[in-house]
């Protein structure tokens, strides 16, 4: 089973892809510790150009979801002008939803 599915990363340059993979891998480890099951993380990236401002400003929209065989699909999304901030916000929301579903923060090991 593929652990991370990325869609839309072809719109990013080399440095943005590196930063994206670095952030996703760090959040993947956090999610893995919370879920404790097999899962697939899916991340979709959309880039919007502003009209009349070529190569100046790009707005990014990130949608992430996690598919767990025993539970329902959990989704989150975020959009912003900064790619790194958008990815962090989206994956942080996803992690909060997972913690809410599994009550991870209230459990004692």
Structural description of this entry:
There is one protein chain. The protein has 109 residues and is α+β, with helices and mostly antiparallel strands. It has a single domain (4-104), classed as Double Stranded RNA Binding Domain (2-Layer Sandwich), CATH 3.30.160.100. Helix content is 39%, strand content 28%. It has helices spanning 14-35, 83-102, and strands spanning 4-7, 40-49, 58-67, 74-80. A four-stranded mixed β-sheet has the order 1-2-3-4, covered by helices on one side. Strand 3 (58-67) and strand 4 form a beta hairpin. Helix 1 (14-35) runs parallel beside helix 2. It starts with a strand and ends in a 7-residue tail after the last helix.
Please name the CATH topology.
Double Stranded RNA Binding Domain
Q: Unreliable runs, pLDDT <50, ≥5 residues? A: none
Mean pLDDT across residues? 86
Helix content: 25-40%
| Radius of gyration from the alpha-carbon trace, in angstroms | 15 Å
Give the total of domains. 1
CATH class: Alpha Beta
Measured by DSSP, the beta-strand proportion falls in 25-35%
Read across the widest sheet, the strand sequence of neighbours is: 1-2-3-4
Structural class: alpha+beta
- Quick one: overall form? elongated
CATH superfamily assignment? Ribosome hibernation promotion factor-like
| Number of H- or I-type helical stretches | 2
Largest sheet: 4 strands, mixed
- Give me the CATH architecture, please: 2-Layer Sandwich
Beta strands, count: 4
Oligomer state of the chains in this structure: single chain
